[in-house]
Amino acid sequence: MKATIVTLPGDGIGPEVTQEAVRVLEHQARLFGHTFDFSEHLIGGCSIERHGTALTDTTLAACKASDGVLLGAVGGPRWDNPNAAVRPEQGLLAIRKELGLYANLRPVRSMPALFDASPVKAENLKGVDLVVVRELTGGLYFGQPKGRFGSNGSLRAVDTMEYNEFEIVRILELAFRLAKDRRKKVTSVDKANVLETSRLWRQVATRMGQSHPGISLDHMLVDTASMRLITSPAAFDVLVTENTFGDILTDEASVLAGSMGMLPSASLGDNRPGLFEPIHGSAPDIAGKSIANPIGSILSAALLLRYGLNLEPEARAIETAVDRVIADGCRTKDLGGSLSTQQMSKAIMDHIVNGRGD
Q1: SS3 262
Q2: N or C end: fewer C-beta atoms under 10 angstroms in the chain?
Q3: Catalytic residue check, 102
Q4: pLDDT tens-digit profile of 256-290?
Q5: pTM for the full model?
């Protein structure tokens, strides 16, 4: 296969972890006989510094013409001003919207070798294997009206949570589709006791559940879900929710894996390209020190292979190798170890033998 992959390293540790993910993708291309052409562009704070905007038209056009987009992280203290007219996060929101990426998948698995790295009790971590499906282009982040109003003596701010039925249908349909190939259980998370958007969400979910008789559907309030993610996470299979709730719950779920540096994500629409990125931020305090954990970015590259390029064996080989290096005791600083960013990615590549991860 020949494919074009756009990389958006971004800010902070983004360039470091993205570089290692690219190395792993190049490694897989050699083993499996593929040709991956990489094209690097700016996004976030570094784009603001160079172009005055977090996402240029040129970068967006390159992404639209690609087969997949691999992103690092955006933001940092230099641009940490929520009142600024131009902010790094605007690049993320814009690219999701422009590429039609309405679904964010965040798989979370616990590894016995990392139970001691998590603040959650080990007995609660056994058997954790879930995926959060987050609606990505609706809700509070995009609803109108939005803004600040009034004078200094009496300020008022407004954010609007808005959902159309079709937005709910398409994200739930994906959740049911994923559950079919997993443990056949969907948990729909809302706040239907308070929010009108959640009442619509639950109504649609209930109706769709009836048309998927082979899938178990549960409804759960977001506050209950946040508690049970810690007390009984193994009970979840596919957890689907709206944008803001999903943003918060997925960061909470990162403690189940031992470190936020371990978790990947895939943002998908109805067509290529998808956007693949680790869930962690730019971590400016450790940028340039070669101690960032590259696994989240490397596993995001595996998701690019699976969902972006339909290369399942290549993706599985990476995931198997990650499991094995962790089981062998390989650790970066966030996991209590001393391996550098580059040493960790090399260990992963060394565990991929004959392209199978055997």
Answers
A1: helix
A2: C
A3: no
A4: 999 989 999 999 999 879 999 999 999 999 999 99
A5: 0.92
Our answer to whether residue 223 is catalytic in this structure is yes
* CB-CB contact of 79 with 281 (8 Å): no
What would the DSSP string read from start to end of 192-241? TTT-HHHHHHHHHHHHHHHT-TTSEEEEEEHHHHHHHHHHSGGG-SEEEE
Which amino acid appears at position 157 of this protein? A
Please tell me what DSSP assigns to residue 99. T
Active site residue 251: yes
Give the active site residue among 191, 237, 307, 346. Answer: 191
Average pLDDT, the chain: 95
DSSP single-letter state for residue 332: B
Domains of the chain listed by start with CATH number = 1-104+276-358 (3.40.718.10), 119-257 (3.40.718.10)
Q: Which residue has the tokens 């013409």?
A: 65
pLDDT, residue 353, reads 65
**DSSP string computed for 142-193:** T-SS-EEEEETTEEEEE------HHHHHHHHHHHHHHHHTTTSEEEEEE-TT
CA distance 30 to 267: 26
> What pLDDT does 355 receive?
44
- DSSP letter at 273 equals P
Q: The dihedral of CA 39, 44, 45, 50: what is its sign?
A: positive
Whether 146 is catalytic: no
- Fill in the amino acid letter for 2: K
The DSSP bridge partners found for residue 133 are 105, 240
Candidate list 163, 247, 333, 346, residue with the active-site label: 247
- Confirm whether 141 is a catalytic residue: yes
Please name every residue paired with 278 in a beta bridge, in sequence order, or none if there are none: 264
Of 11, 67, 141, 163, the active-site residue reads 141
Q: What local confidence, expressed as pLDDT, does residue 284 receive?
A: 95
User: Cα(321)–Cα(353) distance, rounded to whole angstroms?
Assistant: 9
């977090």: which residue's tokens?
A: 54
Give mean pLDDT, residues 157-185: 97
Catalytic residue among 57, 80, 116, 223: 223
